[in-house]
Amino acid sequence: MPKDFIQPSLFDLQLDDNDEEDYYPDWLYPDNWKTPRWKTAIKRQQLSLPLRNALSSSFLPRSGSWLDFGSGHGLDMPRLHDRTDGRYEVHDFDPHYCPKFSKLKATYSIVSLVYVLNVIEEPVERCKLLRFTWDLCTEALVVAVRCDGAGQQLTKIGTFQKYYDRDEINDLLIAYCPGARIFGIGAGHAIACK
């Protein structure tokens, strides 16, 4: 079991009918982050490898809605839309670059979480985010983490980077995506299906 494994019951978000409609967990707001996570967003020249791997797998629905959570500069969703001839209604959300919190009130056929867990310095928050995005999807969660290193570190630009191994990410998906069928689709890339 990973050393930063957190039991889901320790953090379940409990909202009742009296809570404000626009309440979101504190950990979603960049002002509450300890490191400048947004600096890790890169501008790719093509659709990211995890999403290419997901599309070439047989584990996703052929159409539906798709939210890219932690989308950075938002370049993947237009490319995904074009690559699939519009079969997916695409949406992006990023707390820093695209903070459209109203998008978190809906559910989506597919949610992608690509290289987001790696840059979160708080273990509990990583677990919370995984469960949060699992709850946003109705059919599949596409997850990608970096596994090209070991341990964790602060980078030269002050960002945090955690590296995963296959067993560790698999254990997290099992714990925070209850009932999921998990399929590996590449090094550090997986799809959790409902």
Compact overview of the structure:
With 194 residues, this protein is an alpha/beta fold. 21% of the residues lie in helices and 23% in strands. The chain has one domain: Rossmann fold (3-Layer(aba) Sandwich).
Report what the structure shows:
This protein has 194 residues and is of the alpha/beta class. The protein has one domain: Vaccinia Virus protein VP39 (Rossmann fold). It contains four helices and eight strands; from the N terminus they run αβαββαβββαββ. The protein has helices at residues 49-56, 76-83, 123-136, 166-176; strands spanning 64-69, 88-93, 108-114, 137-144, 152-154, 160-162, 181-186, 189-193. It has a six-stranded mixed beta sheet, with helices on both faces. The protein has a two-stranded antiparallel sheet with strand order 5-6. Strand 7 (181-186) and strand 8 form a beta hairpin. The longest helix is centred in the last third of the chain and has 14 residues, at 123-136. It is globular, with a radius of gyration of 16 Å. The model is unreliable at 5-21 (pLDDT under 50).
